[in-house]
Write a structure and sequence with these properties.
The complex is a heterodimer of chains A (281) and B (293). Chain A is mainly α and 281 residues long. Chain A is 80% helix and 0% strand. Chain B is 71% helix and 1% strand. Classes of the chains: A mainly alpha (281), B mainly alpha (293).
Chain lengths: 281, 293
């Protein structure tokens, strides 16, 4: 009798916990579901009944976004920037990590503390002088003006992740390769890089998402509409057509969608990549 | 000994170091230098020179009512982050751990807002808060209530804080849940045999063993709170209404890039560094992470 009562009480407790957990899950799904749903409605319908499914299903908002707002151009700009940042960070950080974990040299400690301390610099504290450099070189509105500071900003974190990974790899394979007469370059490309693959994936995910989502640098460096990456374009659309709710919903959906699709396939790696990035610092 | 020849170091180390030097370290020093000069433009005309004004900009900080709002808002954000963001994450992590089933699902769903750009989330909440036809006012109309101005001066800060806080809960949730999963089951079983209820186990086992992880989360949260920009800017740019929703980051941006007050912007940027370093130092002093590990 007593045991029975206890079990019942416990399961009510569990029900409440599940309820709370599901409620929170709804808060993280609802905003995105809401905005996707409303992107298929004309604006006047969004304003009046944003909770129901589209009564008057339309793709006009998307047509508007692609044709008038030229969102594809911004996708392209964003891809150029984020891919370049990712590739550059992968190459530079794996090389640095290789040097830092395999060689002993004068000043190694200093360089190590420079790498660690640079993770403490918020972007705000370097952006004005970087803006000055870009103005001087005439690089404003050029993707390079966003790429270069983003590479530098991600480099220290990436190097630290790679260093942690490389330290765990025993030297035997490299030893064998050197005995067989391989040079440093061959060892780095044929042995180190394949072994680093998991760390490369973590860093790539982190850098790409970070760069794709970063509005601050885009706003400062790119001031021409045709050169806008996707986040900057979104802000522009919001300030000019903020009252066209249908268009806003479609534009927001278009920026979310690629990430959502990739997230569905790679959620485990993405979660690991993004939290590892923070924890290493 | 492998790796005795040092010449490859130049090739491997130099490109990365040069990048960091040119785009991080030198700018960081230059930013401090800028804050001591009166800069009329970013780039000097030939023959022109910036006037050295010493700590004038730093004195101006004390006279500027808007920076006071920005500082207060950023400090409030730090506090709110610890209490609501990390607090909620901790509660959710403990609850998900207690129910055992569905961990994978909750991880994926709770984490999702983090991969989405803060700009997009900001614009979704802008659509929620709009006066005419915004989502919240539609809800109020459905319930027979009058529409409300969600970004009125007295509530604007809270309304902007909500998505900023909500957005990152999943991040700390995943970190804390990973920490909880690392605690061995034997510990809980032993406690259960000694008659320790599930509720008590949280206080006597989970929380003390999680101290290091919680400390990491608080440090990350506090330093993250100081970097708020994208989301706030997407909902209302320039600290509207009346600068009441300015954070240090948004105010620095406005001063530098819309008012072109570069030296004052540099001053605020350096202030952000000071606040960040001080905050993480205080956190590490209050909750020494290594005490129980």
């Amino acid at each position: 009798m007593n045991g029975h009562k206890r079990k019942k009480k416990l399961s009510i407790g569990y029900m409440i916990i599940y309820l709370i957990l599901i409620l929170w899950a709804i808060t993280t799904i609802f905003p995105f579901a809401w905005v996707i749903n409303n992107s298929f409605k004309p604006s006047r319908e969004v304003v009046n009944s944003s909770f129901s499914l589209p009564a008057e299903f339309t793709l006009d908002n998307y047509e508007n976004a692609f044709k008038k707002q030229n969102i594809l151009k911004s996708y392209y700009n964003s891809l150029v920037i984020s891919c370049s940042v990712t590739v550059a960070v992968l190459i530079l950080s794996s090389m640095m990590a290789f040097a830092m974990t395999r060689y002993n040299f004068f000043g190694k400690g200093l360089i190590n503390s420079l790498i660690v301390s640079s993770m403490m610099f918020p972007i705000f504290s370097t952006i004005i002088p970087v803006f000055k450099i870009m103005t001087k070189l005439g690089l404003l509105n050029n993707p390079l003006s966003v790429i270069l500071p983003q590479v530098a900003g991600n480099l220290s974190f990436a190097t630290i992740v790679m260093m942690g990974f490389l330290r765990e790899i025993p030297l035997e394979m490299e030893e064998a390769a050197y005995i067989e007469g391989a040079g440093v370059r061959a060892v780095f490309i044929r042995i180190i890089t394949p072994l680093l693959r998991p760390a490369l994936a973590t860093v790539a995910i982190f850098c790409f998402l970070w760069s794709y989502n970063d509005l601050f640098t885009q706003l400062i460096m790119i001031r021409k509409r045709v050169k806008y990456p996707i986040s900057a374009l979104l802000i522009e659309i919001s300030s000019k057509y903020g009252t066209d709710y249908g268009l806003m919903a479609a534009a927001v959906t278009l920026i979310i969608l690629p990430v959502l699709i990739v997230y569905i396939f790679l959620q485990k790696n993405i979660i690991k990549g993004l939290t590892a990035g923070a924890l290493k610092g | 000994m492998l790796y005795k020849k040092k010449w490859p170091l130049v090739i491997f180390l130099l490109p990365g170091l040069v990048m960091m030097l040119v785009f991080l370290f030198i700018p960081f020093i230059n930013n401090i230098r800028f804050s001591l000069y009166d800069m009329t433009s970013v780039v000097l005309m030939p023959g022109q020179e910036f006037k050295y004004i010493g700590l004038e900009n730093y004195k101006n900080l004390f006279k500027d009512p808007k920076i006071r709002i920005a500082v207060l808002n950023s400090l409030k954000m730090m506090g709110l982050t610890v209490v609501f963001q990390i607090g909620t994450a901790l509660l959710l992590a403990i609850m998900v751990d207690a129910v055992k089933r569905g961990q994978h699902f909750f991880r994926i769903v709770y984490f999702f807002p983090i991969v989405i750009s803060a700009t997009a989330i900001g614009l979704i909440f802008k659509l929620f808060y709009n006066y005419t036809g915004g989502m919240l006012n539609q809800l109020r109309t459905l319930m027979g209530m009058e529409p409300v101005n969600w970004l009125a001066p007295n509530i604007a800060f809270i309304m902007i804080s909500i998505p900023i806080l909500w957005n990152y809960v999943g991040f700390y949730f995943v970190i804390l849940l990973t920490g909880i999963n690392g605690i061995s089951d034997e510990m809980y079983e032993a406690a259960a045999i000694d008659g320790c209820s599930k509720f008590k186990q949280v206080f006597y086992i989970t929380l003390p063993l999680l101290r290091g992880v919680i400390c990491t989360c608080i440090t990350l949260g506090v330093t993250g709170a100081i970097k708020v920009f994208d989301l706030a800017w997407a909902i209302v740019p320039k600290g509207a209404p009346q600068g009441l929703t300015h954070f240090l980051g948004t105010y620095m941006y406005e001063q530098t890039f819309t008012i072109s007050n570069y030296d004052y912007g540099s001053t605020i940027a350096f202030l952000i560094v000071i606040f960040g370093v001080t905050a993480s130092w205080i956190v590490s002093k209050i909750i020494r992470p290594d005490d129980n590990l």
